[in-house]
Write a structure and sequence with these properties.
Elements (H helix, E strand, L loop, with lengths): L1 E5 L2 H12 L15 E4 L4 E6 L4 H6 L5 E5 H7 L4 E5 L5 E8 L10 E5 L2 H10 L4 E5 L6 H4 L5 E6 L3 H5 L2 E10 L1 E5 L1 H6 L1 H19 L1
Parallel strand pairs: 1-3, 1-4, 7-8, 7-9
Antiparallel strand pairs: 2-3, 4-11, 5-11, 6-9, 6-10
């Protein structure tokens, strides 16, 4: 199986889960700049991918399975199967703004975000008229400089918001790492993928005990 892992701390945590579930690849822990790691004995090939690209690799069949944040799945809506919540990388998608600031429903709400689809879907359900401002970094800066009224972004600890005199106004959805599969791979490698899911689930239960 080809497995796409998100680069960074989350990917390392997920690899540990897979390793303990019986899918080790020792070379992945070596100090090197390689991106692809293979263990024929375990029947796996891992590769590191930018977190926001994992779903693309899986959807396009470059990977049979992968690990992507729920935020990526909601925002890009890739044609993949979501198999399991791995219970790691937990955070939440929130609306945040200046402390004590109140929205005026008589005016169009200006929303700065990296996640326009999630923001539009959330406010559409509230029948709220909004103006989306797509940004790629330092989202917290937008309300501070008057670029937006609020932001829609991922909140892990809330420390960055606190340090910038911002606060969470609403929680949109909880976020965590999800195991996803290519639809064709799931059909033709059903036994292998199902076995992996079962082993991961068993490993998670053992870790809780």
């Amino acid at each position: 199986m080809n497995i796409a892992l998100p680069k960074g701390r989350l990917g390392e945590r997920v690899y540990q889960i897979l390793e303990e579930a019986g899918y080790p690849c020792p070379s992945i822990r070596e100090e090197n700049r390689k991106l692809v790691f293979e263990n024929p004995q375990a029947g796996v090939r891992y590769f590191w991918v930018k977190p926001s690209d994992v779903a693309i690799y899986v959807e396009r069949a470059a990977a049979d399975i992968g690990i992507a944040g729920k935020d990526i799945l909601l925002e890009y809506q890739p044609q993949v199967y979501e198999l399991a919540d791995l219970g790691v990388g937990k955070c939440r998608m929130c609306v945040a703004g200046k402390k004590g600031a109140r929205e005026s429903r008589e005016q169009t709400l200006r929303v700065a975000t990296k996640f326009p689809k999630i923001a539009k879907s959330y406010y559409s359900a509230l029948s709220r008229d909004i103006d989306i401002i797509k940004l790629h970094g330092s989202i917290e800066l937008a309300p501070l400089l008057g670029l937006s009224d609020v932001i829609v972004d991922i909140v892990e600890t809330g420390k960055t918001l606190l340090e910038n005199d911002l606060e969470v106004k609403e929680t949109i959805v909880p976020i965590s790492a999800r195991l996803i599969a290519n639809k064709v791979s799931y059909k033709f490698k059903y036994e292998e993928i199902t076995r992996l899911c079962q082993r991961v689930d068993e490993q998670k239960k053992e870790a809780v005990q």
